[in-house]
Amino acid sequence: MGNYNRFYFSDYRNAFTFNHFMKNYTYIDLFAGAGGLTIGFGNKGFHLEMANDIAEPALNTLKKNLLKTHPDTNEERVILGDIKELYKHLGNGDVSYDMQGHMVIETGIELELRKKAPSVKDNKGIRKILAGINHVDVLVGGPPCQGFSMIGRSKKASLEERTKGFIDDPRNQLFKHYLKFAEKLSPKLILIENVKGLASASGYRDLIEKSLRDTGGENNYETSSAILNAKDFGLAQNRERIFFIGLRKDLSEKYGIAVEGIFEEIINAKKEAIKLKEVILDLPQIKANPKPNNYSEEKELSFSNINCFGKNMSDGPYKELLGEKDSQSYVRLINTYKERLEFPERLYNHKSRYHNERDLFIFKNLVPGKYLNDPENKKALSKVIYGVEIDAKGNRRVKGFVDKYFKLDAESVSKTIIAHLELDGNSYVHPGNIPRSITPREAARIQSFPDWYFFTGTTRNQFKQIGNAVPPLMASLIAENFKSVLDRINENEK
pTM to 2 decimals? Predict the structure, then answer.
C-alpha cells in the first residue's frame, strides 16, 4: 500500500453538503447488540439493510429505537438468532476454523443464549430477506470474544498452550461466520471492533487480518488495524478497543486509497477528552435504591420526592428536570442526529441500584480517582471484608483487584464502561455527595448514547447492553470517514 498516493478525506468531505451525504450507502450490522454502531452509521446517512444478534434484550432496544435511527428499515430486518445458523442462508459454504489442537468447551452462558434465541435455520422469511440483499457498501460488527478470559483455564498450562487456547476457543472464531457475509456480499469496506486484549493474544490479531485479506477470492481486502481510545476522541472514558478495517483490494488499487490512510484520518480527528462532570452531573442527583429487588415501576418515586432513587421513565418533562443545563455542549452533541438537535420528552433509564449499608459507607468515604490501597482511602478500606490481607504492622491492603471499590473522578475521565456493570456497580461509584453507583443513563452518557435512546429490559441488563456497545460518537467518526471513501469511489465511477 505504500506506493499509493495518500488521499486526505477531510478535504473531499468539506465539499459536500448534508443532503449529499444522505446518499443511501447501505450496510449490515452483525453482532449489533443495542446499536452503538447502528447509531453511528445511521447518523451519517447509511441505510441499514439488516442487523443481527443473539441477545434478545439488546435487539429489543435496537428495535425500540429503530424508527428514530433508521425509519426506512423494516423491523423484520432486525433478526434475533445465532449467526452460526444465519450465515447458512447465504449458501456459500461452511466455515472452517483455524485450530491448533486445544478446543475449549463453550460456556453455559453462551449455550443458554442459544437456547433462548429462536432457530433461524429453516426460517423462510429470513432466507427471503438475505436473498434480496445482493450487495452492501459496508459490513460492520463486533464479534464477541468471551474466550479471552483466563478463568477456567489450567494454571499449569504453559504460556504457549494458553495463548493457543485463545485462538482455539470456538467463541473466538465467530468472526469467520461474520466474514462469510463479506464473501457473499462483497462490501467495499469492512469494520470489525473487539477488545484490546486480542492484540496481545498469540497470533490472533494476525489471524483476523489474514482471514480478512483472504476473504472474497479475487476481490479480497487490503487490511489494517489500530487500537483507539475513546478519551482521545472527545469522550469522558478511558476505553481502548482494537478496530480492523478492510477495503476491497480492487477499489484500493484503482483509486489509490490506502487503508492505513483511513486510520490516519480517524486519528487526525483526535480531540481533548472532556471531564466527567460535563457528562453526568447535570442529571438529577438521586439516592441509592433503598431495598433489594425494588425495581418494578410501582416501587418508583417521583423525581420531585426527596427520597427518589430514579425512574426508568421520568414523570416530569426532560427539560424541566435538566433545566438550562441541557444547553451543555456535550449534551447537545450526543443528542444531535443527522444534524438535527432533539431532546426526549422524558428522562429515560435513570434509576439507581440497591447497595447494603457497608457498601454505602465505603462509597461515602472513597476518595475520587484513588484505588483502595491508597493511604487516602484508609477509612473506606476499613469496611472492606473480601480479599483483604493485614501485614505485620497491622496495615490492611486488598490483594487482586484494587478497584473492586472505586469512585469516579468528576475532574477526570471514567474507567471503561463494561458489561460487568450488570453484576454490580462497586467499581463505578458516582462522584457526587450521595453514595451510590452510576445509573444506566449515566453509563449511557459516558458511552455517548443520545438521551432519547431508550434501553429496554431490566436495569441490570441495560448495563450489559451499554457496556458491550461501541460508543456512538466513535462509530459516527468512523462512519464519516467511510462515507468519504465511498464518496470518492462513487464520484470516480460516474
Answer: 0.90
